[in-house]
Amino acid sequence: MAEAAAVVAESLAGYRARAARAVLEQVVLPGEELLLPEQEDEEGPGGTGGRPLRLNAGARSRGRVVCGPGLRRCGDRLLVTKCGRLRHKEPGSGNGGGIYWVDSQQKRYVPVKGDHVIGIVTAKSGDIFKVDVGGSEPASLSYLSFEGATKRNRPNVQVGDLIYGQFVVANKDMEPEMVCIDSCGRANGMGVIGQDGLLFKVTLGLIRRLLAPDCEILQEVGKLYPLEIVFGMNGRIWVKAKTIQQTLILANILEACEHMTADQRKQIFSRLAES
Amino acid sequence: MEGAMQTETKIRAESGIESGPRGPGCSLRNFACEQNLLSRPDGSASFLQGVAEKSRERLIRNTCEAVVLGALHPRTSITVVLQVVSDAGSLLACCLNAACMALVDAGVPMRALFCGVTCALDSDGTLLLDPTAKQEKEARAVLTFALDSVEQKLLMSTTKGLYSDAELQQCLAAAQAASQHVFRFYRESLQRRYSKS
Question: Are A275 and A263 in contact (CB under 8 A)?
Answer without folding.
Answer: no
